[in-house]
Structures are given as structure tokens and as C-alpha cells.
Amino acid sequence: MPEPESFDDFVRACSYRLYRVGCLLTGGDLARAEDLVAETLARLYLAWPRIRDGDGFGYARRTMVNLHTDWWRRLPRRHETLTGEVPDVPDGTDHGNQLARRDSIVRALRGLTRRERAVVALRYFLDLTEQETANELGVSLGTVKSANARALAKLRVSPDLAEPARSASPLPAAASALHREF
Amino acid sequence: MKDIDDLRHALDAETADLTVHIPASLIRRRARRVRTRQGATLAAAGAVAVAVGAIPAFLLIGATPGSSVPEYAPGAFGCPTPTRFPPDPGGEVRSLGPLVETGATLDAPNVNTRYDVLIGLEGTRDQPGFIVAFRDQETAAVQVWDTLGFGRESNGDIAGKRAGDPAYQFLSSQLALGPNKVLDIGLYTRAAHRITVTSEGHATDAHIAKNAATGWTFFWVQRSARPLPTDRFATPEHYRGPEQVTVTAYDGAGRPQHTATGGPLVGGSVQNPRDGSPSESGAPSATAVPTCLIASTPK
């Protein structure tokens, strides 16, 4: 397959954003998110000559969502290799701190179903409309609406996303009203 | 978390510090594995169909509206018998008729092999995939290298990518066989008496064959023309140079039914074993004389 030079450019430009979506779809499983991105880009590579309308990211996004939805059937089983050597070396990054900062929303997302996570990622991270999200997931608009409502209801009561206690809050009723907005 | 804006902010902020580096070599390796899996799945599906004797003669050659048409029989017309899959039970994809001989030959010096080029459909009637397969002339092994899946509208046309997108009547891809030699292959979503493929101002009649499983019409033609440039996908705009391909279908009275020039589904390239790995020669070699005669002779 003659490979357009722009494929590498696309990979450089979009891997990061795809990885972020993958992180949300997998509920913070970074290894699986990376695997998902790699598989998505492999599919994209095969289809690249036909993607001529400039919406390569849209194609990749749809591929990634579909792969994630049907993860275990579509992806090959990964074989683990036991080794006595640990390949990781410390690079000075405070991963603990990073994890702590990332943990709240990601942990809350783990409480959602795959479809609900996908709806949240598409609607609120990628800013797709409900109709676009329905098209992307191959479901009806009503399904998106109900999944969205369920997801927000779960997030609303998730202890991982609870606001810090405000013992001196003078307006508990107002705060409650804000919560109802989503 | 107070509201939707808070949620948006959290989703953004909590993934902002991620870093990822996926080497291009890894992507290519995975792509090769994906392609192998796709080919294996199709082969397994074919095996099932052969095993249960479930492949009727779907394909009719030389179909014209309102006329009786000869039945396509693999091995007829002096053509080698196409596509025999290994007897391996299992598989997920249904065949939509046997593969069709295009009569074109692809030389792949990088793997020191010469291939016959075949086209066909797999999948289901409503979600078919147009496939291009290559048969090793020495071993008769058939490999599917290119699959393009799409949806089918209720009127038979190819569905657009998204809801509300226009439907398409043509799918047409091009395989460069030499510096001035191309094979154009594809399908038309209706019955047609005649289909022409045009570039650089020259129209050429294509061979046609009707696929009874879908009602669509395959077409294929080898012609002398400059291939579409390989870098035509590098820009967001569709290529509009002189090599741009126009496909036109005519009815029995010679009236044009539909025509399409360029666009998302006309003028795509064909993944193939020659370009699948580095070639020493770099440029495509000239095609050899086709190994079989085709039943439907262009006018």
C-alpha cells in the first residue's frame, strides 16, 4: 500500500487526543487505552488511502469506540511473558500525584457501563451532540438520552466526585439545586 | 462536581497530563496482523459455505435489463476455477457469491510472485464489503488484501457515512498495473446495460457482471491511462487532476442513468501484495497478458 506521508503526521497530531479518549473509555486503564489507540491506528492505516475527506480523526474516533464496545471479540488476546527483570526505570515523575489528581473522575467513570462511559466521553469530552453520539455508537437517540441520564445520575451520587464537606456552607439548598442540573 | 461544565473541565483536566508514544513500526505490525485476520476470517467463511454446498450460482455474467443472461460458472470460458477455500470450519462472514475474475495480472517483484486479481462481495446483504483478492498463479492461494465495508440503503444504494449524508451509486477503485496501465474495479448499485470509466478525456467500456445476492453490478476494466497520483490523499480536498476517474452507467437505450466523478467512493486505491512491502523496483511493473478471457466483452 503506498503510504501517504500524511499518515505519520496524523498519528503525531492525533495520538494524544485519541489516548485521552481511550483513557476515558477504559475507565483509566492506561495500558488498555494505549492498546486501543494502537489497534485503532492500525485499522486507520489500512483504510488511510480511502479517507480522503479530511475527517481522519472522526474515522479513528468511531473505530476506537466500536473497538472498545466489542473489545474482547475484536482484539487478539494478549500473551503475557514472565520475566525476572523489571523494564521500568524511574524517571523522576511523581506518578502518585498524577494518579491522585486523575483518580476522581476516572474512578467515577469505572462505575458506569461501557456504553455510559462512551456517551459521557463523546458528549462531554469530544462535545458531540446527542444525535452525533447516537450515530457514532450506532444506537437510537433515545438510547443515548437514557444512557446519558443514567450516567449523570450515577456520577451525581458518586463518592469519588463528592464536593469537599463545607460545614459552614450557608446555602445548602442552593448547592443541592446546582447538583440537580446534571 | 456541580454541573456539566464542571464535568467537562474534569474530563479535560484529568487527562491533560497523559503522554503516549506509539511507534509507527508498531502500528504497521498491527495493521499486518489485522489484515491477516480479516483474510483468515473470510477464508473460513468460504470454507463453511463450500462445506454445506450453500453457494448457488449467484453471479450472472453479461446481465442486461429484461434479457435472459448466461449463468456464471467458475471454470467456464477457459478461466481457471476461482477461489477454493481450505476446509476449515468456523467463521463469521458470509459469502455474497463467488469472486469474479478480472483477467488482470499483478506482478509483485518484491515477493517474486504474479497474481490474478479477483473482486467480490462478502458480509451480509445489508452490510456488504467490497473485496479485492489476489490469487498466486503458482499456488492458487487466494489472499484478500482489500475490504471496504459499507451500509446499504433501502433503495439499494450505498449509504453515506453518517445519517443525512447522500447515498452513492458507485464504488470505484483503481490499481496501477504499470506506468500507463490501470485496472479500474468497482460496483454500481443498479442494473446497467453498459458502464464506462473515463479519465484524461478517454472513456473505456468496462466488463460488467450482476451480483444476484445484492442486485448490484460489478464492473472492471483494464485500460491505458496514467494512474491516479499516489499522493492524491495527502490533501483534504478530493483530487481533481486529469487522471480523476468518472464512472457512468447507461441503460439499454444508451441513456446515462448515473455518473460520478471523484468523490469519496470513486478513485480510491487498492491495497495489494506488491505495495504491501517495499519493492526493489519502486515503480509498478507493466502487467502481463491476462491469463483468462472474460465472458462479457466490452463494446
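Chain A touches chain B through 54 residues (CB under 8 Å).
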